[in-house]
Structures are given as structure tokens and as C-alpha cells.
Amino acid sequence: MPDAALRLTRLLEQLLGTPLPVRIRAWDGSQAGPPGAPMLVARNRRALRRLLFKPGELGLARAWVAGDLTVEGDLYTALDLIAGLVWERDEDAPGLTRTLRDPGARAAVRGLVRLAGPPLPPAPPREEVRRRRGRLHTRHSDRRAISHHYDVGNDFYELVLGPSMVYSCAYWPAPGPGATLEQAQHDKLELICRKLDLKPGRRLLDVGCGWGSMAIHAAREHGVSAVGVTLSREQAAYARKRVADEGLTDRVEIRVQDYRDVDDGPYDAVSSIGMAEHVGAAPYLEYARALYALLGPGGRLLNHQIARRPQRDESTYRVDEFIDAYVFPDGELAPLGTTVTQLERAGFEVRDVESLREHYALTLRHWVANLEAHRDRAARLAGPGRARVWQLYMAASAVAFERNRIGVNQVLAVRPPESGGSGMPLRARTWGAKTA
Fold first, then answer.
1. What pLDDT is stored for residue 323 in this prediction?
2. Strand order in the sheet with 39-42
3. Among 412, 101, 62, 79, which Cα is nearest to 271's?
């Protein structure tokens, strides 16, 4: 009688010291676990070998990307249920090293090894980043990391992001029928333009411009001259075509350029939307100072950036293992307070902070729905493994925002003029009406 699922469930519960919150179906067709719960499907023994070799989220991710592990039922519910086992273990909870001092835990591991069978370990899926030696966040390493994430194919991103081609948190209205991703992304770009007080004749620098959406919106709707910089050649080519199609080549310039090499200031405003996560903790002050130097007195910066919660050990800012290995190589997340401090150290006066955490969860759920609605085409465009990477990354990120493990914030800062004024309205958040 097939019993791999029951044996696997009992051994994992013995090792973890807690009941599994999900149901398991094993490679022999057997099932075990709470009735009605989402089902983790281990399609072969290799799925277990991946978990044994790399316990935690990276092992789970490798099994998912390779297609060895799938979920039947609601993916969000499954991720929510296992969050406490994988991502949210208490800092004071015993780690695996301490757990394995217990004879029962060691016996469970031996049982899992026998159940998994040889050989061990499997090679990582080819979609995983192959690490190279050298310093992080050099111009060369940043170009390589950006290419890994953004040069997946513009057709693939069109499928996921929709017509707006905006790859950052949208700005949603109050819950109700009729809200669309496209409108919410338009409203986000408009919100940023109003916070930056963009007007005809002013100059905007969009750092990490992506496919050109912010630069195009600012030029078309607010009459500015915009420069967008990106390290992705695929993005730049796509953005330039959009600019030409909009008839904005006289007002929008798209460059393949590192922000550290921009030297044609002063600008009246700088937008950095979903780019600062790539900068890194060590160079962050350099980033802030570079943007400060590119602004004229009274110029505004809108820094839209994902933040993580403070933790006891602040020696690393690296993103989760799965995201670092498959999605954003070398990405680093800092707490909001650290970001504000660095901007202030660079000379900025921080004038407003707005959290959009729930907005990003909604945005990600829409992206996942787009991907799942075109699953076969996504697999053809990017490859089956890469499509699974993006599905897991976006769904898990949505759950992380919903559970308040991470947040996203718009920080509005000003380069103060010598007079001490800021040019800001006396009452904050008066960007509800379009400026003249």
C-alpha cells in the first residue's frame, strides 16, 4: 500500500516539532495531512532530496522551479500557511543546528534520507544565478544583475505587467468594482508627478526608468523634459520606441547609463521608482549624494522603495535566498528608518513618507493573475522554469506584503535652498489636484 505521504508527513513533523499545516501528496499517489488544506505535491523523490540538501526556502524554491514540487489548491493560502515554518521563525526559536542535537530530530533526518533515496544532491535548476567572485555593486556587477532580471524579454513583461509596462507598486482606489491595473498604474505615475510638482519647462531625471512609462507620462501630461536612465538594453530599446510612437522624442531621452555616470544636472526633480533596492547598503549614501548633486536648490526627489522590517542582526541587508538566487541578484532591502537617515546624511530634507504596502499586495495579485491567464505563452516566451520563478516570486511577495514582513514607501525629499525654504505647501499631501 502506498504510504510515502504519511511517512513524509510524520518525519517532517518530528523534525520540525509542529504539525504540518498543509496536505501532502507523494510520488506514489498517497496523501496525508489536514483534509481540505492546500496540497503540496512532491512529484518525485528529487523534491525531497532538494529540501534535504538545502533546507528552507531555497530548497523549496529549487523544487518548485524544477517542477518537482507543485501546489494544488490556492497558492496564496499555501504560502500563507507555511510562512511561519519558512520565513517567519522567531529569532529566539532553535535553529536547525540546535534542533539536530535532539536524538528524535536526528532520527527524523535519517528517515528522510532513506525515503529520498540516492543520489544527493541534485544540481540546481539552470535558472539559478551562478555566483561569481568579486565585489558587489560595481558598475559591472550591477549591469549583470540588472540584465538577469530585466532582460527576460519585453514580450514576457508585456504579458505580466499589461499595457502600462510599469513594474512597481500601483496606486489603488478604495475597494470596489471597476478598478483596473492600468488605471491604478496611471494614478501612481500621476501621484508621483504631483508630489514632484512637475510643470512645463522643468527637467526630470527618472533613475531606473524601466520601459519609459514615468518619463513618457511626465512629458505628455505635465510638459517636462525628461531623461530616463537604465542599465537594461532591452528596456531602453523598448522605451525609445514608445517615446517615438508618442511623438515625444524632442522631450524624452532614454539612455543606457549608470546613475553614477549622469553628469548633466541640475534637474528640477528626480524620480527613483523601484530602483533603490538594487543599489545596496554599502553604496547607498553614495547613491543619495549623487541624486542630491544632480538636483538644483529646491529640487525634489521621490524615492519609491521596498523596505523590510528591522531585525536583531543588521549585518546583512540581503533579500530572501530565493529572490537573491532567482529574481534580484545582489538585491538588498533596508528598513525605512535607515533609508530616511541616509537621505538626510546626503543633505536632503525629508518632507513626506507614504506607505503603500497594501497597494503592492494588490498589484502583485494582478500580475500573478495575468501570468496564470497566459501560462502556456509565458512558458514559451521565458521558458517553463523562468515562468515558475515569476509565479512563485510574485505570489510569495504578495503574501509578504499582506503579512507585513515587507513594505513599500514613497519618500519625498527636497534639496534645501540656501534661504532655508523648501517650496513645499504648508499643508502636507495637497497633491490631490493637478497643478497648473
1. 86
2. 31-32, 23-25, 39-42, 69-72
3. 412
pLDDT tens per residue, range 48-74: 999 998 888 899 999 999 999 999 999
pLDDT, residue 98, reads: 43
80 phi, psi to nearest 5 deg: -65, -40
> Taking the domains of the chain in order of start, what are their residue ranges?
4-116, 139-414
Query: Among 115, 113, 82, 108, which residue's Cα sits nearest to residue 11?
Result: 108
Encoded amino acid at 283, one letter? P
Task: Give the pLDDT confidence of 140-173 residue by residue, as tens digits.
Answer: 666 666 665 666 789 999 999 999 999 999 999 9
* Distance of alpha carbon 86 from alpha carbon 78, whole angstroms: 12
CA distances in angstroms from 380 to 69, 137, 383, listed in the order given: 20, 32, 5
Q: Report yes or no: 61 and 392 within 8 Å, Cβ to Cβ.
A: yes
As a whole number of Å, the CA-based R_g of the chain is: 24
CB atoms within 10 A of CB 427: 6
357-373 and 384-402 helices, crossing angle to 10°: 150
C-alpha angle 81/110/22, rounded to 5°?
Answer: 15
Buried b / exposed e along 339-366 (16+ C-beta atoms within 10 A)? bbbbbeebebebbeebebbbbbbbbbbb
Q: Give the cell for residue 229.
A: 536612465
Residues paired with residue 307 on neighbouring β-strands, in sequence order: 407
Contact assessment for residue 35 and residue 29, using Cβ atoms and an 8 Å cutoff: no
Q: DSSP character for 124?
A: P
Give the span between the Cα atoms of 399 and 80, in whole angstroms.
Answer: 6
Question: What CA dihedral angle connects 305, 395, 359 and 319, to 10 degrees?
Answer: -20
CA dist 330 and 327 (Å) reads: 10
The CATH number of domain 139-414, selected from 3.40.1050.10, 3.40.50.300, 3.40.50.150, 2.60.40.10: 3.40.50.150
